[in-house]
Design brief:
Order of helices and strands: HHEEEHEHEHHHEHEEHEHEEHEHHHHHH
Number of domains: 2
CATH topology of the largest domain: Rossmann fold
Bound molecules: nicotinamide-adenine-dinucleotide
CATH architecture of the largest domain: 3-Layer(aba) Sandwich
Number of helices: 17
Helix content: 40-55%
Strand order of the largest sheet: 9-8-7-6-10-11-12
CATH superfamily of the largest domain: NAD(P)-binding Rossmann-like Domain
Structural class: alpha/beta
Strand content: 5-15%
């Protein structure tokens, strides 16, 4: 049985983590309270036609912090979504954006439906109606609030949102910047779909690369051969597994809501994905052991556990059974504060959600910049760089009389594509932010976790924005 997200404690848990970190800052209590508070909570309901009748859908958009504009955050489609959860996720977005130096306030949306029970046409109607409700209340716009995908939503929903917004704002030049995570054809950006998982892999690689930290928790440095279990084979989970294995780790376990599989010899995530598509389940994947109880999968032998499904998955009820030494939080809020404390006390390390899964918002920021500048990254300079690099190589060959191998020439000459620029911007962000967080932890020995250090950095940055904006004396 999967543990369901807790109904009403998620926002309190985020605030608990905030308060723990605030002790290490010197900001006045009033300012800390302002940073913590959810600035706007919009709860609404709207009808959708189903069969011969009408059904009322509950929905939310929360803008947690207006210290920066626009606000930014995904929209979750889930029958379990509730106001507390959307507030918590919006708050995490604020702290996340500050951590990775993305100039947005945090926001989040929620649509309380089980997507599996609706046709594509009904999902489109719901998404378009949700967007209209946001437009009516000024809760969406390239300079106001910019949604993105989250659990249960993806490129398709983002394109419906963009289309609805553009229809209702004819002639608005920057209208496409009203939402990110769009398909490429609608001026989305290459690399956005896989950005969160790719970012998780960079985060884990950075963490595992610090020899003294790995020694402290009883692991050898580096990702090579490290055993990974991933929970959730959705966008974040699939791409985390894919890139972690590309970087040298071995995927040994996958947990989905229908069960879990484990193979100490390694799993190929694409083969598991195909097996699930064909059979409707990850269960009975050839060569792997199947667990009917999905949560048992989290407790199998591994070095790194990547919860990438939902919040509140590692709690006081199961943390003692977790064998991993590192938890890399692909999902938002997968570890309760109490479980986190027990895990750290036991010598484990948690790469916190607000940093670990920030790759998505980082690349969403690039997409927003692309939409505002109305030109794809690399489009103007790609050919120019290739030509001048070729000229340079030709000159060197003429001067030295030596010829460079064709494959080396190709590598040196080519200009950077949009995808390469996006990935390098993402990699740089994840590397830089990791070491910024770790530095804070190393310099204040009382700070015991990367999460507290991340919150400290984040609070400090947001506090400065409030002061420079004159919002606070
Ligand atoms: P998704 O809908 O693409 O995938 C989620 C997967 O988790 C699904 O395959 C679902 O079946 C599975 N799942 C649900 N309940 C489960 C359970 N109890 N046990 C095992 N598996 C379960 O969603 P996503 O976009 O990958 O988001 C996953 C998490 O990552 C969420 O917490 C989300 O807030 C966070 N996140 C997503 C992004 C993004 O860019 N999509 C960015 C940052 C954080």
């Amino acid at each position: 049985m999967a543990i369901t997200p807790n109904e009403n404690n998620f926002f309190a848990d985020v605030c608990k983590n905030f308060d723990e970190a605030a002790r290490f800052t010197s900001h006045p209590e009033g300012l800390l309270n302002q940073i913590k508070a959810c600035n706007s909570v919009y709860r609404f309901q709207f009808p959708v036609r189903r069969g011969n009748g009408l059904e009322v859908v509950d929905a939310w958009r929360v803008e947690h912090s207006h210290h920066m504009s626009p606000t930014k955050g995904g929209i979750r489609y889930s029958e379990m979504v509730n106001e507390d959860e959307v507030m918590a996720l919006a708050a995490l977005m604020t702290y996340k954006c500050a951590i990775v130096n993305v100039p947005f306030g945090g926001a989040k949306g929620g649509v309380k439906i089980n997507t599996k029970q609706y046709s594509v046409a009904e999902l489109e109607t719901i998404t378009r109606r949700y967007t209209v409700e946001l437009i009516k209340k000024n809760f969406i716009g390239p300079g106001i609030d910019v949604p993105a995908p989250d659990y249960g939503s993806g490129e398709r929903e983002m394109s419906w949102i963009a289309d609805t917004y553009m229809t209702m704002n004819p002639g608005q030049l920057d209208a496409l910047g009203c939402v990110t995570g769009k398909p490429i054809a609608l001026h989305g950006i290459r690399g956005r779909k896989e950005a969160t998982g790719r970012g998780v892999a960079y985060a884990v690689r950075e963490c595992m690369g610090v020899g003294e930290d790995m020694k402290r928790i009883g692991l050898t440095p580096g990702l090579d051969g490290k055993r990974v279990i991933v929970q959730g084979l959705g966008n974040v989970g699939y791409h985390s597994a894919k890139f972690l294995t590309e970087f040298g780790a071995t995927l040994v376990g996958i947990c989905e809501f229908e069960g879990a599989i484990y193979d100490a010899n390694g799993l190929n995530v694409d083969e598991v994905f195909a097996h699930r598509k064909n059979t409707g389940s990850i269960a009975d994947f050839p060569g792997a052991k199947t667990f009917k109880n999905s949560m048992e999968g989290l407790e199998q032998d591994c070095d790194i556990l990547v919860p990438a499904a939902l919040e509140n998955q590692i709690t006081v009820h199961n943390v003692q059974n977790i064998k991993a030494k590192v938890i890399a939080e692909g999902a938002n809020g997968p570890t309760s504060p109490e479980a986190g404390a027990i895990f750290t006390e036991r010598g484990g390390m948690i790469i916190p959600d607000m940093y670990c899964n920030a790759g998505g918002v980082t690349v969403s920021y690039f997409e927003w910049l692309k939409n505002l500048s109305h030109v794809a990254f690399g489009r103007m300079e790609n050919r120019y760089a290739a030509n001048s690099n070729a000229n340079l190589i030709n000159t060197l060959e003429n001067l030295t009389g030596k010829t460079i191998l064709p494959e080396h020439r190709m590598m040196i000459v080519k200009g950077a594509s949009e995808l390469e620029l996006v990935n390098s911007g993402l990699e740089d962000t994840m590397i830089h932010s990791y070491h910024e967080i770790r530095e804070t932890m190393v310099h204040t020995p009382e700070i015991k976790t990367l999460r507290t250090a991340a919150f400290v950095n984040s609070i400090d940055k947001i506090a400065v924005s409030y002061m420079t904006l004159g919002v606070w004396p």
